[in-house]
Amino acid sequence: MSNTYVTIIDNTGRNILGVLANETTDTIDILNPVMITVQPQNGQFQVQLIPLFLAEFIASDEKTLRNFTYRYSKTNVAVGINFNVDTRITTQYDKIIENANTAKPAAISAPASDAKPEVIKLFED
User: Residues with Cβ < 8 Å from 118, sequence gap 6 or more?
Assistant: First the structure.
């Protein structure tokens, strides 16, 4: 099954990309949304995709994926229509989501009262 990618511009002006999870006349649900950032670099544009919520913060075990869905009210966003996102961008998006779902969750434990706070490692080396 292929993904149906959707783009919106939210009420703060962020460009959001994700997979269409559900849509009604009033809302649009986006699975694993990322913010698209574009910066000029040496006469070119550098494009980065930044997850709106880090999957490493979502409880997971070996059997479940760390997917998340955000629901947007259509009265507060502009929904992209009549175009397809370039495959270079969707391929980068798919890799980000795949990596998030294959990485091990960060271990979090309560520190001893006199111990220094534990550093939570979000990504494996």
Answer: 108, 109, 111
What stretches in the chain show pLDDT beneath 50?
Answer: none
pTM for the model:
0.75
C-alpha distances in angstroms, 71 versus 8, 22, 45, 51, 99?
12, 9, 30, 15, 23
What is the DSSP-derived secondary structure letter of residue 75? T
| Number of neighbours of residue 68 by Cβ within 10 angstroms | 18
Residues 5-102, CATH architecture: Roll (2.30)
Alpha helices in the chain (DSSP H): 87-102
Structural domain spans, the chain: 5-102
- pLDDT digit string (tens) for 78-101? 999 999 999 999 999 999 888 877
